[in-house]
Structures are given as C-alpha cells and as structure tokens.
Specification:
The complex is a heterodimer of chains A (949) and B (438). By secondary structure, chain A is an alpha+beta fold. Chain A contains 38 helices and 18 strands. In chain A, the strands form five sheets. In chain A, strands 13, 14, 15, 16, 17 and 18 form a six-stranded antiparallel sheet that branches. In chain A, strand 17 and strand 18 form a beta hairpin. In chain A, 37% of the residues are buried. Chain B is α+β, with helices and mostly antiparallel strands and 438 residues long. In chain B, 17% of the residues lie in helices and 41% in strands. A nine-stranded mixed sheet of chain B has the order 11-13-9-8-23-21-16-19-18, with no helix packed on it. Chain B has a five-stranded antiparallel sheet with strand order 2-1-5-4-3. In chain B, a hairpin with a 4-residue loop joins strand 1 and strand 2. The longest helix of chain B has 19 residues.
C-alpha cells in the first residue's frame, strides 16, 4: 500500500488512537477536518500527493463514524489523476463515500468510461471495480455496452474480463431493463468455452442472473454448462490455484449446477447422459473427511448436485443412490452434516416414488429427533447480555412467548436465566426477562440446589434497587408468583414479600402502586391465589411482527432483490424454496445453497390432502375457537402497552427452533387457509365504527374505511397481500340488496407481494331496509383457492344521523305521527338486561340520540334520529322505550316516523340490537305483521298527508 | 436535619469506582452499577444532576475527569447534598495543593478515606472547614515529590475549636505584621441581541478575605450598598451623602458574620477565621456597568464566502485596562479558511470549536479595536442545512473595576491590644457567560 510514505496520515491515526475518550477524539477530528478544509480551499492548489494524503484522512474520519459532507469533489477528481497511486485512492474513496444515488458520481462517469475503454489494464480494473460496487442507472446506461465489449474481447487479459463480467452482473441486477442482453446467448455460449477458470466463474455468475431472468434464450448454453461441469468433475486442465483442498473450483461447480436448474428439462440425450455421468461421479466421489473446510466445499457441491438430480427427475436408480448417500449423512456424528442430510431428505420426500426407499432410514430419522437443538433462548439471552441496549422490548417478549408455548423448554429457560442473574451486573432487559421466567417457571427447579423459592427470591430482589421504574412491575409480579408457588407456604418469605408490597403501595407510579396493592390483597387469600396467579396460558399463534419487520428490511438488499426477481419469474413447473442458511459456520460456497428448486407437481400433490376440505367448502366463515384473544391481553397487560405477536408456528419436538426464525419459509405454509379472528365479530365491530379489519387470513388482509354523508357512503377496501409471493386471480364482487346501489371500482387481478391495493366502493341508500350487502372475495395463492363471502358494514345505522330535540319539537312531531303504520308499538321480551345508561350508550353507538328529560318517568327513554335515503331524504324518527325496573328483560318500544317502511325497519333494527340471540344474527319473525307499504306514498303529498292523519 | 448522602462514590470517566464510602446501609453496594448503566452510558449524562432510579436518588457532578456521585434513598435534601460535594471538593483541593482529578485521588487514597470519615457521619455533613480539619488531620496530601516537608505543629485541641464560642478561630494567634486582604470578585453574565439591546444581565459577586491578624480581632466592613447607607444616615441622623448606592440581592454571609448586628444595624461585623475565606456572596440585576460592548456585522456572501466585522468597545475608565480578553466569533462548520485584519491582538481560526478566536492580552479602557475577517467556506453535500448563528462569546478580566459599582467604604479592625493593621483591597470583574447574538 502506498501509505508508507505518508507521515501526516500516520501521525493523525496514532493521535486518534491515543485519545483518552470520545471527546478528545472529536476535538482532534474536528481540528483535522478544519485543516483539510483549509487545504482543499487553498487557491494554489495541492500536489497530487497532498490531495491523496488528505483524502485518505477524510476516509479514515468517515470510517470512524463522523459526518464528512465535503471533499467528495476532491475524491472524485483524483479519479482522473494520471498516476496509479492517486487514481487508486480516488477510486477507493469514491466507492466508500458515495453511493449510486449521489449526483457527484455523474461527474465521474466520463473519466470512468475513459479508463474502461483505455488501454491501461490496471485502470480498467479500478474502474470496473468501482462500477461493480456503486454503479447505478446512469452508469448502466452509458457503460454497459463498453463493459460487454470487454467481456468478449480477445485482447483483454482474463483479469480484466472477469472483473467486467462481475461488473455487468451488478448493472444487470440493478437495472435489467437498461442493460441490453438481446442476442447475448451466443456470446454467453462463447464465453463458456473459456479456458480460464476465473473468467469462467464470473461468467457463470452472470449466466445464473441471465437465465433466472429468461432461460429460453440461453438453451445454447446448456450443453456448454454440462461440458464445464464435466471438465471440473474429471479434473481436466484445472490449474493449481483453482483447486480448493483438492476439489476443482467448488464455486464454479455449484454455480454451474445452479444455472442448470433454471432450465426446466435437459432434452438433448447426449448432454443428459454426460450430465448424469458427472452427477454420478460427484455423488460417488464425496465422502465425509476430517477437514472442516474440505467438508464444507465438497458438501456444497454435493447438495447442489442432489438438488439438480431432484430437479432433473433422474432415474429411480440414481435417486435411490442419493437416498442411500443421505442415509449415510444422517448417521454421521457431526450435527451440521446430519442437519443437511435431514434437510435434503425432506426435499427428497417430495419427489414421487421415493417414500419407500426413504422409509428404510426411518429408524435413524427417529433417533435424530432426540438431538439437542441450538436453542433460541440461548442465543437471545446471549444477545441481551452482550448488547442489551440495542435489544428492543419486542425481542424479549418473544422469548417469553416462546418459552410459554414450549413446555419442555420451560425448566431449561429458567435454569439459563438463573445462571445469568447470578452474574454480578447484568443488563436491565435481562433482569426483566429473567424475573418473568423465574416467576413463571422457577417452581420447576425446586429440587435443584440453590433454587429454593427463597433463594430465587433473594436473587431477584437483589436486582430491584438497580432497575428503573419500567421493570419494577415485572419484579412485583415475580414476587407474587414465587409466593404462590411456595408450597408449603414459607411465612418468612411471605413477610419479606409483603414488606415490599407495602413499601410500593404508596409508589408514585400508578402501575407499580396498583400491582403492589392488588398483589398484597391477593396474597392474603391463601389457596385462592392459585387460581388467580396460575401459569400464563399459551399465546395464540400469529405471524410475528418481528419477522415481518425482518423480512421488510431484508428485501432491501441487492441479493434479495435478485432472489425476489427469480421468485417472481418462476415458471409454473418450479418453485423456489427460500430456506434459512444452513447452520454451517462456513464458507461462501455453502451460503449460496439457499436457492433450491423443487418440482411443483409432486409438491402440491403432497399437501393437497388437507386442503380438499377448504376447497370444496368454498365459504370460509369458520371461526377458530383456538384463538383466545384474552390470553394475549393478559400478557399485554402485564408488560405494558406494547403489542405482542405470537410465534408463527409451533415448533414441536425435533424441529429446530430456529425454523420459526427463518425468513420467508414459503414451503412451510399451513395446509388450510383459516381466517384469523372471528369474521362475525369483525363485522359487528365495523357496524359501530368506520374503519377496521373486515377479514384476515394468513395470506390476505381486507381492511375497510368508510365515510358516510347523508344517504351516500364512500367505502375503501384495502386488500393487502401479506406474503412475498403475489396473489393471483383476485376477484371481488358486491352483491347489494335491492335498497342499496353499489359501485365497486376495478379490483386488480393480481396483488403483488407485500402490496396493498385500495378499491373505492360507492354506496347509495335508496330506501330504508335492514338487508345487508355481501362482498364475494376470492383469490388464489400457490395451490390454495380461497373464496369467502363477507357481509359489508353498510347497515341501516350508517344512514342515521344523531339529532337532539327539545320538548316542543319532540312532542309536536310525536303527536302529529299518530298510530300505525307511521307509529308502531310493541312489547319486546327477552332483551338483554341493560341499565338505562347502557341502553342510552347503545343507542348512541348507532347514531340515535337520547333526549334526556323529555319523559317525566325516569324509567323511560326518549330518543330521536334522522334517517337519510334517496327516497325519503332526511326524515326525522322518534323512539320511546318504556322499561320495567322490576323486569329488565322486557320493555315496550314505540317508534314513529313519517314513512311507514322506515318506522318498521327502524323498529326491527333496534330490536335486533336489544335482543340477544347469539346463534342467530337475524331477529325472530316480527310479532306484528309488516305494514302494507303504500308504493306511492312519498311521491304523492296528498297520500303523505293522509298517512299523517 | 435531613440526610444528605447514604453513600458517596468517586468514578472516573469510564465508570470505574476510584474510591467510595458508604455512610448508611439503606442502599445496596451495587447501586453504582445502576448509575453506570442508566446514566453514564446513556445520553442523559449531564442533562440533569439529580436522577432517580429504583427508589434511589443519584446526585452527581463532574469535576475535571471525575464523577462524584451521592446515592441516597430516603427523602434527602438535594441542595445540602450538592453543597456538601462542593465543599468537599474545595477541602480536597486545599489538601492536595489545588488539583482535583483522577491522579490526585489515586495518590491520596488514605487521606481521602480519613477525610470522608470526618466530614460526614451517618449521612449528616460535619465540619468541612479546611482550617479546622487541617488541625487534626495532619497528614499532608502528596503534592509533588520535591515539596519541602511542612513544619510540625503541635496538635491543638480540636474539640475546643469545634465547640467554642468562636468555633472558626483559634486563640492565641500572633503575627508580626497584621494584614487583611479583601478582594471583591464579580462575574458578569450577559446576553445581548445583535442590535445591542440587553436581553439578560446580572452580576454575581463575592467578597473574599485573607486575614493574618493576631488575637481575636473584631472587623467591620462598610460597603456602598443602599440598606447599609440608609441605616447609617438614620442612626447618625444626617442625610445620605450623595453618590452611587447599590442594591444587593441574595446576600449570603460566612458563618462568622454576626447576623443579629447585621439585622439591627445593617453593618457587617465579624471575627474572621484565620487565613482565607469567603465573607459574603451577592447578586445584582439592576444598574450593571457593562465593561464591553460588541458590535458585530456578519454577512453571508453566497454559499462559500462570509464577511465578519466585529468591533469591541471598552467602556470603563481610560486609565484601567482589561486582561486576557478573548472574543470567540462562531463560524459555520464548513469553514475552510479565514483571513483576518485586526487593529490589536491576534486572531486565528479554531476548527475544533468552530470559532474565530481573537485574543487581546491588554485592552485599555475607552478604546475600540476591530476585527474584520473574510471567511471562505467549502461546499458540502447537504447545502440545505442553514447555519444557526450561535452567539459571540467573550472572556476577560478587568482589575479595579466592579460591574456593580460596589465599593468598600471602610474596613475597621478592632482588637483589644490595639495594633495597627494594613488593609489591602482589590476589585476584579470577570466574564461569566458574556454572550452577544450576531
């Protein structure tokens, strides 16, 4: 490195390193920045050496985390320096300080281009590396053709060409629309004839990106790939520097096989034959050896080969050979290898006709169930211990949920947190999670030494003085739990705990105070305490917000976008399984194993058994009784206002717990589409409010937002795709009843992954009616077809507007409306017993105003509202309820309005609200006959008058 | 009397405990961990000197590179706690020869433990006077390896000192030459708008004394303060002499001042302790004589150039002069270069504090030196961030000038032997936070 000569830089770095504290460092850095600014501003200009030196310093300051917002110009200008040392600095600093969105980069495009098309190889390399790191759209537009030229140029050295291939790969991944790859198939094929393995590896990466985009154009490359693979497998003409532990370029092998998996079939018999020969050779030639690195490399190759074999639908003989090989793997002691073996065995199972062969290994597989897992709890506790400040609350909530939902984990977790609490000084979050878990599960440890309730209590209580207010409530709960679990009761411990409770009874923090008071009172109840403070119930299984967040962040990175691209462009006969990284602490080779194809046909065959029910049933209004919302609320109450999401899937024995942490496990969706939450309850809630969720299942969520103005309403349906794959064949149809006019705007047929579509829906109310509109919603997700019928909350009460009348207004109206059909009266029995205040609140909830003080009898209730429809326009409606204080289950209701239909419908509507018949949302047939509605009554004023009389 | 401390900790900037002393058992020994985790390692450090964590209060302050933390669990008197800290630091400084930092603490472990034992008992502050403590804690602090060994003095009876009628003064003192030094030290705090109107201004002053007097002298101090003068004229039934009278606010006295006499006669009379002490403190908010006026004009010419013109006017007597005047003129962060023209003194650009620092060693009264600078800025990536223009700051010392106008009218010394004394009186005005918006 050219650093050796720069004394000033070395002095500066040693100064910064010698700084005693952060403040000194900042002062030193600020001083240096001032110096650099002065130098850069100097009119006389700087020698290239000086410029280089200061730009290096700037980079160093930038790397220390300081904001460097000047000097980019100088860095960029160094790129055009004629000499290598300066140019190198320019390129390095520019690619560190800037990203593709910076305008400054535009200034460099020309210089970079000159370097790329120039004759100097080192300059070409520098330029290609820069573009390969931070090249954006503009670079792609102006440089792609030049880069392409270099790749195929025969006059360039391999060194340059391989950089060019990688550079083009980046440009293509970032802007596939800009880089013109039409007619590139011939050139790619030509490139694959290359003898130099470096160029070949880079070209293969490029090919993988190209075929993932469009394999059809690259059929000609297929035989070449097979040739490359043959060459590698036979170890022909492989230079020493491209062998890794004796394996000829494992990277290239893996990439080639990956590329081959993008082609649906290999038809050419000779290619197929030689490909199978190669695969055979790989399968036979791999064995488990001592050296970890060699193992990693050879296994990477082997497992890619296995995927390819599965993809190609090889002969049964070969398949059984694969299974035998995997059988050997799963018998190995080394857990990583066994994991990989089992993992691939699972994939094998999806290939038809192999079950029998695999069954032979059943005993071994069952033995593997006893393997200890790397536990989620361990990892997170370690994380909190080491970097507690950066661990947000929802992370430790998840630990609690995990442990609560996994019984066999509970004693283990309790032991583990106790170990941490034994340490002298620990992070507050660890105290919180430790206290919670010990409160719940420390009784499981009672027999162990040092785990008696009193010892546990002392251990936790020791921490109390050091924690902040937010943790004290948790500690108090823990004390109460410990007290409850102490059998037989320990009077001394009880005394201690009571003293603490009493101390906090007057705490200024309401939460702490309330807990202290309540726990104190409760703990006096003795045995009854057992019921109140019983173990927390399991958390409902839900998609975790944490995982969602992780997915969202993940999808930003370039590599992920490439994966997503591939996912979206999958043809019908292949499915991409994005799996968690294999647990090998290893090499890049192995990490690339993430993408594996599985033939789709066999895949769906195996999981459709359970789905049949849901498919044929069509209408999905089944309520899942296994989702007690209250349990979530309990913990929410315990832990404060943060929402808690349950784990996405129950990890059962043997399934590695990290599975739940894996990102986007498309292959592990539940087998039937169950709605989340109670659809009827959601509907009822929406009848009383204007926005909320109408329907939710694992794939889609339908939200609704409504605005009501007189007889018109504007609803917006929010159709949200919750998954990383698109929802297709989306259809939404409204089935309005005769009194509503509905207009639903066009619903797109496809909802892109993780996207939300808004569909406005116009509603016009023509006349009073209680009928409810229905939305017929259907979509297809992978193999699932979901069709649901949902009631839309465009109910009668939405067209009511509250109005408050005074005595005169009310009674003049009341008297003018006399007798049926304008005024109806009915005695209703079997109503929900409600106090008058509750009833008034109920009325308010559906926009009916109670006018207080109008009725002299305190047991009566008088209310009014305005109803809007196109026919009636605004119409005043009056209601009177007479209750019997002796029997709240019956009342007499009188409803009056200027329109017989409205009177009847409103009466029935209120009756529905008052009567509790949970099994039947419809009211019983009305006691009185529906009045004869005069068809012309409203258009004819005379008739109207007559009605009034 | 309320408890002031349950425990006291001395920590370095990293949070290691240098030395600690627990006075009461009502706080746990690991409470300082909570301080380290919840205060030192967060951004809240330095925002609030009192923090409560888990039922304990932490009172802390930073002196050079040491954090001193008082932990207290009951409803303590925070003001008392801080006063105790300040006094304790002054005590340590007088023992260590002026320095109080991490090294001084490490070098004087034994002494500090001894002092900590003495100055507080079960959480209640005790005698913190260096003069008295030095009588019976004779172990000298480690000053420097070359300091001469102090003369051994007989250990006097400390109990007598603490319990006597004049607790702060030893009997039987004898000096060859009887001298009294009196300094009036004032610091001026000012915030002025760019147009020259005063937004906030006050003076906090103290009267410092150093006495080398034999026997048990009685001293009487007369100032030109309003109440004292009015009372005097009332007593002597003659009209107040013309001249400026000063209204003092918030006067606090040293314990030696006889308060009953002050209340009845409004004169400051006292039997002084031997050596150095602070006789009184006061504050003045009205009628402040500002020593300097600053007239800044700062023009931003485009995005890369700035013109700064600052004129500083001294408005005290022409025969007086200010010392160590420093004017700090803030400039934007992206300043690259500054060219100066100054009529006196020296100016330079200091990148570490983003200021032009203009230093004038000797600044005579009734003069107005100017600084004009051309500042060049470098262009940056995010141009939108506008510069907030922090205020100009000034530092100075003006001897023989009081911003309040306070004067000593007389200082009478009366002792039964009737010796003659020499009185030395000095005035000095310093800058507190002297800020001018620009």
């Amino acid at each position: 490195m050219a650093l050796s000569g720069m004394r000033g830089l070395a002095v500066f770095i040693s100064d910064v390193r010698n700084c005693q504290n952060k403040e000194h460092e900042r002062l030193r850095v600020d001083k240096e920045l001032g110096n650099i600014r002065t130098r850069f501003k100097n009119e006389k200009g700087m020698t290239p050496y000086e410029k280089k030196k200061y730009v290096w310093k700037m980079l160093y300051i930038y790397m220390l985390g300081y904001d460097v917002d000047f000097g980019h110009m100088e860095a960029v200008s160094l790129i055009s320096a004629p000499k290598y040392p300066e140019k190198q600095v320019g390129y390095i600093v520019t690619s560190c300080l800037l990203n593709e969105n910076h305008d400054f980069l535009r200034l460099a495009i020309n210089t970079v281009r000159n370097d790329i098309i120039g004759r100097n190889e080192t300059f070409q390399c520098l330029a290609l590396t820069l573009v390969g790191n931070i090249g954006g759209r503009e670079f792609a537009e102006s440089l792609a053709p030049d880069v392409q030229k270099i790749i195929i140029s025969s006059s360039c050295r391999p060194l340059v060409r391989k950089k060019a291939a990688l550079c083009l790969l980046r440009l293509f991944r970032k802007n596939p629309d800009v880089v013109n790859v039409d007619g590139w198939s011939d050139r790619m094929a030509q490139l694959l004839d290359e003898r130099d393995l470096g160029v070949l590896t880079s070209s293969m990466s490029l090919l993988v990106a190209l075929v993932s985009n469009n394999y059809d154009a690259y059929w000609s490359c297929l035989p070449k790939c097979v040739k490359v693979l043959e060459r590698l497998a036979r170890n022909q003409d492989i230079p020493q520097e491209y062998t890794y532990y004796g394996i000829p370029s494992p990277w290239l092998q893996v990439k080639t096989m990956r590329a081959l998996q993008y082609f649906p079939v290999v038809e050419d018999p000779s290619s197929r034959k030689s490909l199978f020969e190669v695969l055979q050779r790989i399968l036979m030639g791999t064995d488990v050896v001592k050296n970890v690195n060699k193992n990693n490399a050879s296994h990477a190759v082997l497992f890619e080969a296995l995927s390819l074999v599965m993809h190609l639908d090889a002969e049964k003989e070969m398949m059984s050979q694969c299974v035998a090989l995997l059988g050997k793997f799963i018998a190995v002691r080394e857990p990583n290898i066994r994991y990989l073996g089992l993992e691939n065995m699972t994939r094998m199972l999806m290939v038809t006709d192999l079950q029998e062969i695999i069954k032979r290994h059943q005993a071994q597989i069952i033995t593997s169930l006893k393997d200890p897992d790397i536990r989620y709890v361990d990892v997170i506790l370690q994380l909190i211990d080491k970097a507690g400040d950066f661990v947000s609350d929802d992370i430790w909530f998840r630990v609690v949920q995990f442990v609560t939902n996994n019984e066999d984990l509970q004693p283990y977790a309790a032991i583990k947190v106790k170990e941490y609490l034994d340490k002298p000084s620990i992070h507050e979050t660890l105290i919180k999670v430790g206290a919670y878990l010990l409160g719940e599960y420390s009784h499981l440890l009672v027999r162990r030494p040092g785990c008696s309730p009193r010892e546990i209590f002392n251990l936790i209580h020791e921490k109390l003085p050091t924690v902040s207010t937010s943790a004290i409530p948790i500690l108090l709960s823990t004390y109460a739990k410990i007290l409850m679990h102490t059998q037989p009761p320990d009077p001394e411990l009880q005394k201690q705990v009571w003293t603490i409770f009493r101390k906090y009874e007057s705490c200024i923090d309401v939460e702490i105070q309330q807990r202290a008071v309540e726990y104190f009172e409760m703990s006096k109840k003795g045995a009854a305490l057992m019921d109140i403070l019983a173990e927390m119930p399991r958390f409902p299984e839900r998609q975790s917000a944490l995982i969602k967040k992780a997915e969202d962040t993940e999808s930003d990175t370039a590599e992920q976008s490439a994966i997503k691209l591939r996912t979206q462009q999958q043809t019908s006969n292949a499915l991409v399984v994005t799996d968690q990284p294999p647990p090998i602490n290893g090499t890049a080779t192995v990490n690339q194993l993430r993408l594996v194809k599985v033939p789709n046909m066999s895949n769906s065959d195996h999981r459709s058994t359970d789905q049949q029910l849901t498919h044929t049933d069509g209408m999905l209004t089944v309520v899942d009784p296994e989702l007690p919302n209250s349990s979530a609320d309990l913990l929410g109450d315990l832990l404060g206002p943060l929402a808690i999401e349950g784990p996405p899937a129950t990890p059962r024995d043997g399934v590695p717990i990290e599975d739940a942490l894996a990102l986007a496990t498309v292959g592990e969706q539940p087998n039937s589409v169950q709605p989340i939450g109670n659809i009827a309850e959601r509907f009822n809630a929406l009848c009383l409010k204007d926005s909320g969720v109408l329907y939710e299942d694992p794939y889609v969520q339908i939200g609704i937002k409504a605005e009501w103005r007189a007889h018109q309403g504007r609803l917006v349906l929010f159709l949200g795709n919750k998954n990383i794959a698109p929802l297709v064949s989306v259809q939404a149809l409204t089935l309005p009843p005769s009194h509503l006019k509905m207009e639903l705007s066009l619903v797109p047929e496809t909802i892109p992954p993780r996207a939300q579509v808004q569909c406005p829906l116009q509603v016009i109310n023509l006349r009073p009616s209680r009928d409810v509109a229905v939305l017929n919603f259907s979509y297809k997700f992978s193999a699932h077809v979901v069709d649901v019928k949902l009631r839309l909350p465009a109910v009668l009460s939405k067209f009511l507007q509250p109005i408050l009348l005074n005595t005169d207004e009310f009674f003049s109206q009341w008297r003018s409306l006399s007798g049926p059909p304008l005024k109806l009266q009915e005695v209703i029995r079997g109503v929900k017993p409600l106090s008058l205040i509750d009833m008034a609140n109920l009325f308010y909830s559906f926009n009916v105003t109670v006018c207080p003080g109008l009725d002299p009898n305190p047991n009566n209730l008088v209310a009014s509202t305005t109803f809007y429809s196109e026919i009636t326009q605004a119409m005043l409606s009056l209601i009177r309820i007479e209750t019997d204080p002796a029997d709240r289950t019956q009342l007499r209701m009188t409803v009056a309005s200027g329109e017989p239909a409205l009177t009847f419908e409103l009466m029935e509507f209120i009756k529905e609200q008052l009567i509790t018949i949970p099994s039947n949302p419809r009211p019983p047939p009305p006691v009185v006959e529906p009045p004869n509605i005069p068809a012309v009554s409203l258009s004819d004023p005379v008739a109207m008058l007559a009605g009034l009389m | 009397m309320p408890v002031a401390a349950s425990a006291i900790y001395f920590l370095n900037l990293r949070g290691d405990v240098l030395i600690n002393r627990r006075y009461r058992d009502d706080v746990e020994g690991n409470m300082v961990d909570a301080f380290r985790m919840n205060i030192m390692q967060t951004k809240e450090l330095g925002t609030c000197p009192v923090r409560q964590i888990g039922g304990c209060s932490f009172l802390y302050m930073r002196i050079s590179n040491v954090y001193i933390v008082i932990v207290v669990s009951s409803n303590a008197n925070a003001a008392c706690g801080f006063k105790f800290l300040v006094e304790a630091v002054a005590l340590f400084k007088s023992y260590f020869g002026g320095a109080f930092d991490e090294d001084a603490i490490r070098n004087n472990f034994v002494l500090i433990y001894e002092l900590l034992d003495e100055i507080m008992d079960f959480g209640y502050p005790q005698n913190l006077s260096p003069e008295i403590l030095k009588l019976y804690i004779t172990q000298e602090g480690v000053w420097s390896p070359f300091s001469s060994k102090p003369v051994d003095r007989p250990v006097p009876n400390a109990t007598l000192q603490v319990t006597g009628a004049v607790g702060w003064r030893r009997e039987g003192l004898a000096y060859k030459k009887n001298e009294v030094f009196l300094d009036i030290v004032e610091s001026v705090n000012l915030l002025m708008s760019s147009k020259g109107s005063v937004l906030r201004c006050d003076v906090s002053g103290k009267v410092l004394m150093k006495c080398f007097l034999s026997g048990m002298p009685d001293l009487k101090l007369g100032l030109n303060d309003k109440i004292g003068l009015e009372k005097e004229s009332e007593l002597k039934s003659r009209p107040t002499k013309s001249g400026k009278t000063i209204e003092l606010d918030d006067v606090t006295f040293h314990q030696c001042v006889n308060l009953t006499r002050f209340n009845s006669e409004k004169t400051v009379s006292f039997v002084p302790p031997d050596g150095e002490f602070e006789l009184m403190k006061y504050r003045i908010t009205e009628g402040v004589n500002l020593p300097f006026r600053v007239l800044p004009t700062i023009k931003e010419l485009g995005r890369t150039r700035m013109e700064v013109n600052v004129k500083v006017k001294s408005i005290f007597g022409a025969k007086m002069f200010a010392l160590g005047v420093v004017v700090k003129i803030p400039v934007p962060k992206q300043t690259a270069k500054a060219n100066f023209r100054v009529t006196t003194g020296r100016a330079k650009y200091d990148a570490a504090i983003d200021c032009i620092v203009w230093k004038i060693r000797k600044f005579p009264g009734q003069t107005e030196p100017t600084l004009s600078a051309e500042v060049e800025l470098i262009s940056t990536m995010n141009e939108k961030k506008s510069w907030t223009r922090p205020p100009i700051q000034m530092e100075f010392q003006v001897p023989m000038f009081t911003a309040s106008g306070l004067r000593v009218r007389f200082l009478k010394v009366w002792e039964k032997s009737g010796y003659n004394t020499v009185e030395w009186i000095r005035y000095i005005t310093k800058a507190g936070s002297y800020e001018i918006r620009c």
